[in-house]
Amino acid sequence: MPKLVMPKQEIQKLVMLRKTDEFSSVFSFKKRFSSIYLVTYYCPNALAQSRTGFVVAKKVAKLAVDRNYMRRVLRELCRQELHTLSNVDVVIQVQKPFKNSDFLLVKQELADLFAKIHKKTVTEQIINA
After folding, report:
1. Which residues make Cβ contacts (< 8 Å) with residue 110, sequence separation at least 6?
2. 93 beta partners
3. Are 9 and 81 spatial neighbours (Cβ–Cβ below 8 Å)?
4. d(CA 52, CA 15)
5. What pTM, to 2 d.p., does this model score?
6. I need a labelling partner for 7 at 20 to 30 A (CA). Which of 24, 80, 112, 128 fits?
7. C-alpha separations of 90 from 2, 22, 78, 99, 105 in Å
8. How far apart are the first and last CA of the chain?
9. Tens digit of pLDDT at every position of the chain (129 positions)
């Protein structure tokens, strides 16, 4: 019996913030929302898509394994939720470490934060138009 292989869905490199200048421009815009585990900074961009970047400091999690786990979880959640945003650069900063047992809480927090960002950017676009 042939094995069915599902196509792997990844976040494309085009939708990731990579350079220090890209992160700095989002932080300097000074728009943010926070929750228990996450802080999101956002800034409108001139591109046709949204981009994300992640910050997990050593202060939050000493072990690289834990920091990488949090980044992996956030990357996957952003892959699922990024379609709700349009033309926005978002930096997600972890302010409290989370484990596997907190996954659903983090998922709900990120969805709520993205909804707030979407609502705020839409109202700003209406005001500026």
Report:
1. 38, 74, 77, 78, 81, 92
2. 39, 55
3. no
4. 6
5. 0.86
6. 112
7. 42, 10, 10, 23, 20
8. 58
9. 555 554 555 556 668 899 999 999 999 999 999 999 999 999 999 888 899 999 999 999 999 999 999 999 999 999 888 888 888 999 999 999 999 999 999 999 999 999 999 999 888 878 876
